[in-house]
């Protein structure tokens, strides 16, 4: 049996990390949480996640900067960005660098689930 996908959650807000981890686990996936981009990078490559959900606005290293570091070091996996402060400039930049989704906080669970499932290449809910 295949191991459940690993979803990395990078957000400086404890509550957001906890609620996203709960959502991810409810789908049967493993959740790994990180309080910053630096925290994620400190774990280094090797056991890469199958997908990442990252906040854009974080102190020290923004989510889009984390993406730049990952891409420049050849670490590529789907990234779903979430932000309470969306700008067209940031959306355009992260999407051009390969982001999978760009969501505004708060986002409803169904939208987040749809982005995760799509990022993992899994069929969505067949119900209308």
From TrEMBL:
One of its GO terms (biological process) is phosphorelay signal transduction system. SMART domains: REC (SM00448). Gene3D superfamilies: 3.40.50.2300. Residues 6-120 form the Response regulatory domain. Keywords: Phosphoprotein. The keyword Calcium does not apply. InterPro entries: Bact_response_regulator, CheY-like_superfamily, Sig_transdc_resp-reg_receiver. It holds the Pfam family Response_reg. The modification 4-aspartylphosphate is found at residue 55. The keyword Phosphoprotein applies. This is FixJ family two-component response regulator. It comes from Hansschlegelia beijingensis.
């Amino acid at each position: 049996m295949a191991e459940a996908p690993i979803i990395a959650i990078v957000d400086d807000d404890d509550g957001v990390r906890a609620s996203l981890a709960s959502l991810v686990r409810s789908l049967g996936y493993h959740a790994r949480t990180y309080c910053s981009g630096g925290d994620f990078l400190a774990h280094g490559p090797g056991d890469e996640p199958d997908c990442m959900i990252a906040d854009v606005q974080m102190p020290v290293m923004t989510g889009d900067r984390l993406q730049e570091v990952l891409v420049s070091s050849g670490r590529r996996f789907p990234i779903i960005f979430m932000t309470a402060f969306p700008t067209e400039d940031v959306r355009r930049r992260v999407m051009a660098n390969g982001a999978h989704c760009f969501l505004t906080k708060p986002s409803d669970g169904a939208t987040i689930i749809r982005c995760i499932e799509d990022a993992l290449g899994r069929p969505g809910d067949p119900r209308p």
